[in-house]
Amino acid sequence: MSTPSLLILPGDGIGPEVMAEVRRIIDWFGAKRGLPFDVSEDLVGGAAYDAHGTPLTDDTMALAQDADAVLLGAVGGPKYDVLDFSVKPERGLLRLRKEMDLFANLRPAQCFDALADFSSLKRDVVAGLDIMIVRELTSGVYFGEPRGIFEDGNERVGINTQRYTESEIERVARSAFDLAMKRDRKLCSMEKANVMESGVLWREVVTRVGAEYPDVELSHMYADAGAMQLTRWPKQFDVIVTDNLFGDLLSDLAAMLTGSLGMLPSASLGAPMSNGRPKALYEPVHGSAPDIAGQGKANPIACILSFAMALRYSFDQGAEASRLEAAVEHVLAEGHRTADLLGEEGRAPLSTSAMGDAILAALDASV
Ligand code: IPM
Ligand code: MG
């Protein structure tokens, strides 16, 4: 088989510095595990806007469509706040998601034991936590029409539309059930069927798909109660499936339970391509962190774990993905910490590249 292609889009803020560490990890798998990748790199977000006046050029979009997988750093920064909505850095990311039709966004929230005391919740509530949020990513209020700011008599009105078709709900539900089958076979679907028609339809379709998965225990929760339950006793959940906006909120909440947003990866998957691999984009859940950009302070782990997800979901290398995840767990257990993982502790933090060094050393030790 030909060498798989990987398009890297470092983006803005801390994106380029965390991605530099990922590139070293990718090279390691090529050199030490016989897993070479054909890597190319391009611009997205503010970086693309600065160079081309658009957050994503058509050329880059075409490269993304052709790549076996895309790995993205982060987009955005205060410098771009003044830009028109249509060219904001975030539009580059949203265009990738929409045009690649990446409808299933997998956001694991896993608590590393070494970091359990870092959570704002008590250790026994979060230790061992391992849940997966499946967020619908290409529809709902993010994309529904009509949208805009319109004149309405003597004032303006801002409009966004929550819209879901049955097939959109069905395909993301199926992704979530398939995942649940590989995990603890428990799926909780979250919407607000008590106030939204789209939520009523969501519940009905998820229930219908559930009939095909008799081994998965399906439950439903209103999304607000879901938020409450996630903070009360998150370990009651295994897989959660929810819409685009609720998923945006609930996945940030779940991420924070684990102690650090800097640790969490994500995968956005679409339909299979002709080579059988799903269309896929991998990115850390954290943002571009402009306040610390360029200082070598950022934690590269979320981005590195995003590459681990790529190994698992795009390249069928589950064992190598586990090797990388174990290396990360090992360095954390040994006490290696970037600044975001130290809080009030007085010791000196590791730099971004020193954390990369530690993970590479752990990988070396694993073979
Ligand atoms: C996320 C982010 C994005 C979103 C932004 C950057 C457009 O918050 O990936 O969760 O709202 O989806
Ligand atoms: Mg978000």
Automatic annotation (TrEMBL):
One term of GO molecular function: NAD binding
EC top class, as a word: oxidoreductase
Cofactor: Mg(2+); Mn(2+)
Bilayer-crossing regions: none
Keyword Lipid biosynthesis on entry: no
Residues at the site labelled Important for catalysis: 142, 192
Record bears the keyword Ribosomal protein: no
Subcellular location, record wording: Cytoplasm
Binding site for NAD(+): 77-90, 287-299
EC number(s) given by UniProt: 1.1.1.85
Annotated Isopropylmalate dehydrogenase-like domain residues: 5-359
Pathway the protein contributes to: Amino-acid biosynthesis; L-leucine biosynthesis; L-leucine from 3-methyl-2-oxobutanoate: step 3/4
GO cellular component, one term: cytosol
Cofactor annotation comment: Binds 1 Mg(2+) or Mn(2+) ion per subunit.
Signal peptide bounds: none
GO biological process: one example: L-leucine biosynthetic process
Pfam families per UniProt: Iso_dh
HAMAP family named among the record's database cross-references: LeuB_type1 (MF_01033)
Cross-referenced PANTHER family: 3-ISOPROPYLMALATE DEHYDROGENASE
Record-given protein name: 3-isopropylmalate dehydrogenase
Protein's organism: Roseivivax jejudonensis
Gene: leuB
